[in-house]
Design goal:
33% helix; 12 helices
């Protein structure tokens, strides 16, 4: 059996190949990691920031969106200037508890309105005119961050890993369902693979397959065991994203040795009839992350956890003719956790009367936030990952 046929047949392409190298003994002891953990939540499609965190005292907001602007009496008010979308009661709780920092108008110079290109820029931490094939978290693994020899140091709750988790030599481990991954390994095909020839040869197909199998078995066994120690009885929204956040909470509370978790949800490309769709999705995000906070707080793990919520771009200031919004540029980024040093709104919002071809002008480079997460949450020199030094933000 050829290498490609084996991987296609077993469905292990996304997980087996994400195990960095084959340098460890096949059944070596598991190294637990200590320190803070990072949970990244991606809102795919370009979430409309102006209807998420609403400048409800700004007349330009209402004149630009005569049918789409949210009425003042429906907004969940936070300050004298800003309030959350009506679906975000969970985020309002986190904000009022001092566990959230909000950064307005985060983006990058010369923004791109293409979903794919803009997401690539966020995933790779590149300049808008620079094309990279490695992600910022993948380069963290390539740089041998302490603990990254553990194949699940960076864990993506999905069937495949995003570009952000892809390194040149190492990548994150993708698993959407730990128990299903374990069952996959019980497939009879694995019993046919015997290390009879060329086990130590990198050029041997049999050696490659056996090493892939052994490493994947080790990782899958560890992940499924951690996931099954104790299940949570708490209720998350009945949504795939809710299930993902619950699984991450179970991983953390059961002591898995991962330092980075990555997940997200799509559906934010709201060109048509935005109001109901966005509010429904924001309620799922808000309620899921608030419940995640409660579960980690109860176990004593919240103080060492930071959640970052981002989208690849925001929307244009003016509504379109379909009661929706079109692709824009800068947007909010949310940092949430049990040890936020400076909570609340941390910078000035973009000026709605000073636009660039109808778009918000970014006030902060997203790589300043990445640098802060690398330097202060992961504890690794961000310049080795981002290629140069970016200043830190003040939330952490």
């Amino acid at each position: 059996m050829k290498r490609r046929e084996f991987l296609q047949y077993t469905g292990l392409t996304s997980s087996a190949l994400m195990i960095p190298g084959f340098l460890k003994a096949f059944e070596s002891s598991i190294l637990e990691n200590s320190g803070k953990r990072l949970v990244i939540v991606q809102l795919a499609g370009g979430n409309d920031g102006l209807n998420t965190c609403i400048p409800y005292q700004n007349d330009i907001y209402y004149s630009s969106r005569p049918k789409l602007a949210i009425a003042k009496n429906e907004i969940l008010k936070l300050t004298d200037e800003f309030g959350f979308n009506p679906g975000m009661s969970g985020f309002r709780t986190l904000f009022n508890q001092g566990e959230m920092a909000v950064y307005h108008a985060v983006g990058y110079p010369n923004p791109d309105r293409s979903h794919f290109r803009s997401m690539d820029i966020w995933h790779t931490a590149s300049n808008s005119d620079e094309y990279l094939n490695t992600g910022w978290l993948g380069r963290l693994l390539d740089a041998n961050c302490p603990g990254s020899e553990n194949p699940w140091f960076a864990l993506e709750v999905d069937d495949t890993h995003s570009l952000s988790m892809k390194g040149q030599n190492q990548s994150g481990f993708a698993v959407k369902n730990a128990q299903r991954l374990k069952k996959t390994l019980n497939d009879p095909i694995f019993s046919e693979l015997q290390p009879t020839v060329g086990l130590d040869s990198d050029n041997s197909e049999i050696g490659f397959l056996y090493k892939t199998l052994a490493s994947t078995r080790t990782g899958a066994k560890y992940i499924s065991e951690k996931a099954s120690i104790k299940s949570l009885n708490s209720e998350y929204p009945m949504h795939e994203f809710g299930n993902s956040m619950k699984q991450i909470a179970e991983f953390v509370n059961n002591g898995i040795g991962s330092r980075i978790f990555y997940t997200g949800l799509s559906g934010f490309d709201t060109h048509v009839r935005q109001a109901e769709t966005q509010q429904r999705l924001l309620k799922v995000v808000s309620d899921s992350i608030n419940q995640f906070r409660n579960d980690l707080h109860a176990s004593g793990n919240w103080k060492d956890t930071v959640v970052m919520v981002f989208s690849e771009f925001g929307r244009r200031v003016k509504q379109n003719g379909s009661n929706g919004t079109d692709h824009g540029t800068a947007n909010q980024v949310y940092l949430i956790g049990g040890d936020i040093k400076n909570a609340g709104f941390r910078n000035e919002a973009a000026n709605l009367s000073l636009l660039d071809d109808g778009d918000l002008i970014h006030q902060m480079d997203f790589r300043n936030i990445y640098a802060t997460l690398l330097d202060k949450t992961i504890g690794f020199d961000s310049s080795k990952v981002l290629g140069r030094k970016f200043g830190n933000v003040d939330a952490l």
